[in-house]
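A quick word before the example. In earlier lectures we treated sequence and structure as two separate objects. From today on, think of them as two lines of the same record. Here is Threonine ammonia-lyase written that way.
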Amino acid sequence: MNTLNNSGQTQEAILDAKLDIAEIHAAAARIGDAIVHTPTMYSKTLSRITGADIWLKFENQQFTAAYKERGALNALLLLTDEQRKRGVIAASAGNHSQGLSYHGTRLGVPVTIVMPRTTPTVKVMQTESVGGKVMLEGETFDEAYAYARSMEKQLGLTFVHPFDEPNVAAGQGTVALEMLADAPEIETLVVPIGGGGLISGMGTVAKSMAAQLGHPIEVIGVQARLYPSAYARFKHVDLPSGGDTLAEGIAVHEPGKFTSQIIDKVVDDIVLVEEPHLEEAVALLLQIEKTVVEGAGAAGLAAVLAHKERFTGKKVGLVLCGGNIDTRLLANVLLRDLARSGRLARLQITLQDRPGALFKVMREFNEHNVNILEIYHQRIFTNLPAKGLVTDIECEARDREQLEALISGLRAKGYSVSQVELN
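And the structure line, produced from the sequence above:
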């Protein structure tokens, strides 16, 4: 039996479907009254840091803090009256669930979201707070997805895929319509890829508008190295997929079938980024632009930071596609960024276990004006002699030069000092 999407097409028809600029313009007209036309702004500081001219599209300013509601709303508005009455269902533990729930509730369409039982409570609460009915089923996303598809058939609901559907991709493409209208000088778009809905829509717009703008627009996709599914397919290589990535919003094991067809047509290249660059990008956007983004939302900037030579001198547009990041995780990212910059450090110092030994070390910190945050002693679980002592000191310096001066000063006094490094 063929599964119907929200416009009554069979799955086979979806795979044969096309995505063109007219559909994206129609989506823009359809959703415009309920979606924020987010600003596209030039960043002087990020341009100086990267060597490229950087424009930022602040999609983290949508009501649900992510671009996902564009595609979800477009799909909802194309439902028949009968489909609206019965309701929709989706499998998602991310931004799609919130965008679909918010706009579905606003339009009077019942929304059911299936999440794995392992989903953090905060994500369940966020979806319920905007009107979605959450069902926890299965231990993995694949199991939750399978359950959602079974409920679609049993209850006569309409399944709204988070990315692998033309109506959703058309809605996501409206990001590029706004971006290129506000900053027509952009010549390169760097777009995060999870399932491929965003880059399919944006790439279609970019290639269609090149003649109108008077210059070609390069479309570059970016994925976390831990989840390189679209990259591997694009480059015809076999790479492992999995792990804990900061960019969980694009942590997809396999891109969509429909979106893969569009990617082949409109994407010029795909690059990978490591976790430290994702963390650096999140921290930079908060420190410089005063805006909160999740890991996936910072992936575009991470790509420019990781591949500076590729983007030097180019006019680059980046989409801050989401801002839903756990506050504890954000705090951890910011502290790790301080550590990488040399402003925070943990030093392991070997001492003799005698009165006054620690005081002498602390005097060195005082002389170099480095603030001590925490001190940890280890007498038992160490390879040192019984009279030896390992002291871990967490400290805060003005910059890396000040920290290096302290370490040199301690070593000059005969102390064995090592610094705990991050990955």
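Notice the following. Residues 166-182 form the longest helix (17 residues). We will return to this example when we discuss secondary structure assignment.
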